[in-house]
Write a structure and sequence with these properties.
- The structure is a homodimer.
- The first copy, chain A, is mostly helical.
- Chain A has one domain: Farnesyl Diphosphate Synthase (Orthogonal Bundle), CATH 1.10.600.
- The first copy, chain A, contains 15 helices and two strands.
- Chain A has a two-stranded antiparallel ribbon with strand order 1-2.
- At the A-B interface, helix 2, helix 4, helix 6 and helix 7 of A face helix 2, helix 4, helix 6 and helix 7 of B.
Chain lengths: ~325, ~325
């Protein structure tokens, strides 16, 4: 007999397949309309996998909020996934990343000009779907996307800035990564007919889960994980100030801090072991892990306001997936 | 006493000021909300002038269609201007253009990464405004923007392709330049409450006007015009196959065609006079001018279906502006 968790994991897998199919259908439809290469290139990255955590969460938040007509919320869930992929395409240009989800990035494949446009095309598709909703929800989506851009500016300003504080970091993460989790859950609640105050609970859930998600990303970048589909240490190479680095820089002093600064500013592959040793000396990876747990617990606590249901159980499974990243 | 044309030009100038003020207010509002540098950079280019032909046309199309509450259509007009500016920002990255509207481009000012994001931010602002309308209108905007991307791909595929036909050219222009004129006029008509069939007349008006607009752009690039805010011959340097070049390549043969091909493929400043001589030998500039007149006449003919009004007179003034580019 299968355990409950296995049953919910299997149900999640079915939902993921539904999302994947809907995204494939969208690309096929655009290709049939004559969109050609831009749709094929965008579709190549869009359909290269990914955990689909965002759309799954939004479909579940809608159900948790009492929604019963999935068609009503699916365009919203797809809109966020399309916009998310658009930002990845543009990020990959700016980071000159060659691989994403284990396949060549668009700009590696077609050059920069077409990659910029393919990202725009994905944005347009996302907004075309998101624009079907009420003015209130359109404003939520637009505000969320504007915040992504604002936070990306802040992140660029903090590249290799060794004075970046945990507060700077959290502000960037809230805007860039966690904001879309929060906005999608909030909007899904509204689509299901929740009152503002209850929908705000879903927003907080998404924000806490999104922060934890980014912290796990930071840790995976340092520890390495094939499933990331990009090389270990990419963040360090790009000069991104992730929380473990910020924490270690804050706690280290004297020769250790000086060496850590050198490693970060002139990072190369052979420095990896030394960097990890310094991060472990300040317990910075453990610290990040504790924060992951804290934010996940806060996320789970927000769900307590909603009655038990399969949707709630599946959302808890997703918080576990974020913790374990075994998806 | 002022002539009628002067009265309408002056009324247009007032409308342009209203549009400019609304765009400035939008940027100020975002800055007040904490958007910072991304809004300031985007605003720097957005508010550097420009004729605002698109938003003016859409406000007028709404009035022509019987609309009387300008607030009802203003967000639509601004949405198209914001999206237009977003595509300019991204185009300038891809063309490595240093100047736009007489000031440094965003990527010249801040580097590529921030310029990509500033363009995204402008898209988001545009869609945030456009998303306030009915699903039908949102679909019109999204379809129009997707077509811009598709046509930009085709344009890139035709760079320095000397076999580009007039049909290829028109298809690209319809998608990239004229499509937004058409979509905006059409949507403005729907906002005013027009029936589908009448709104389609406005769509055709916008399409014809937009084609003429691009043809004038092609001519100005060759003849030079300070008001373009970019150097003469930029299209030729970028390998863009504009209609005069396509026409000349089609009509020339033997040594003339060979020399023309060489000039286009390895263009440099000192070749300008020779290029113009070859274009004049095949009457290619005259040909483009005849096409401008043809498309403008077709645009004007579409307006005949609507009763005379100040709005109609001002739209006719705009078709003259496109012809003369004395705005």
């Amino acid at each position: 007999m299968r355990s409950d968790v296995e049953v919910f994991q299997s149900a999640l897998e079915s939902m993921r397949e539904e999302v994947n199919q809907a995204l494939k259908d969208l690309i096929d439809h655009e290709v049939a309309l004559g969109a050609g290469e831009v749709a094929l290139e965008a579709g190549r990255v869009l359909n290269a996998g990914g955990k689909r955590l965002r759309p799954l969460l939004f479909l579940l938040a809608y159900r948790l909020a009492g929604g019963t007509q999935q068609d009503e919320v699916m365009p919203l869930a797809l809109a966020f996934e399309l916009i998310h992929t658009a930002t990845l395409v543009h990020d990959d240009i700016n980071d000159d990343a060659r691989q994403r989800r284990g396949i060549p990035t668009i700009h590696a494949q077609t050059g920069q000009a077409k990659a910029v446009i393919a990202g725009d095309w994905l944005f347009v598709q996302g907004f075309g779907l998101g624009g079907r909703y009420s003015e209130q929800i359109v404003t939520v989506i637009a505000r969320c996307c504007a915040n992504i851009a604002v936070s990306e500016y802040h992140q660029l300003d903090h590249v290799l800035n060794l004075a970046t504080s945990p507060e700077d970091y959290l502000s960037i993460v809230r805007g860039k990564t966690a904001g879309p989790f929060a906005a999608g859950c909030y909007a899904a609640g509204l689509v299901a007919g929740l009152e503002e105050e209850q929908a705000k609970g879903l927003e907080r859930f998404g924000m806490e889960l999104g922060i934890a998600f980014q912290l796990v990303d930071d840790l995976l970048d340092l520890r390495g994980d094939e499933r990331m589909g990009k090389p270990r240490g990419a963040d360090v190479y790009e000069g991104k100030m992730t929380l473990p680095l910020i924490h270690a820089l804050t706690l280290s002093h004297g020769a250790n801090r000086e060496r850590l600064s050198q490693l970060i500013e002139h990072f190369s592959d052979e420095d990896f072991d030394e960097l990890m040793t310094l991060l472990e000396r300040s317990d910075s990876l453990d610290y990040a892990e504790i924060l992951v747990r804290t934010h996940l617990e806060r996320a789970q606590a927000e769900l307590a306001a909603f009655p038990d249901s399969d949707a709630k159980s599946m959302m808890l499974v997703i918080t576990d997936i974020v913790k374990e990243r075994h998806a």
